[in-house]
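During the no-cost extension, the postdoctoral fellow (Dr. R.K.) reprocessed legacy sequence entries with the updated structure-token encoder. One reprocessed record is reproduced below for audit purposes.
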Amino acid sequence: MLKRFRWWQLLTRSVFYLLVDGSSGRPVVYAVDVNHLKSDANGDTEAHLYRDGMRYARARLPAVFPIEGGEIEVETSAFGIRRCHFVTAGRIAQQLVPDPRSAEGRRARLDREHPALSRWIGLLSLILVVVPLLFVLPQTLEAISRIPPLADRFGVFESPIEVPGWLTVALTISAVVGSTERALRLRYNRWLDPVAS
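Re-encoded structure tokens follow.
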């Protein structure tokens, strides 16, 4: 049985819903439940699929659950849900609706009720991810250029930026906060978000 979402699960659990027409002609409610802190014996996180409140299936993430008319695809990142969509047989994707008590649901409500504020928060989260990336890139290039075959052929690149320890900590926290906010909106960019992970 699907357990009710509790306030203390805000950053550890995600629940999403999908209402579809069942084969019997009556509506069916599917729920995807992911506990980000709970893993199986192999250390893998699982997604649980519920049908009308009763457990229907479970799978290791990333997961694909076949249902009437298509499939539900679930993926996570280091900061939360990356994708939770119903994909029809014609490959049309529809995002599932987050539980209103969850962090994703609260963020979606803020987006509906205060769209201008939501856009500013979204822009700020993007800045919080991009700025640390700009500091990390030169240091990464320097580390790569020190690999002996590359250093022999091209020389060693000296990073023009020296980042003190306190700034490294601040940039790391910045990237984590920005990436977490992006995850609450199921925003994922293959160039930005893996770097923050």
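Helices lie at 103-113, 115-145, 148-154, 165-184, 193-196. The longest strand covers residues 27-39. The remaining legacy entries will be reprocessed before the final report is submitted.
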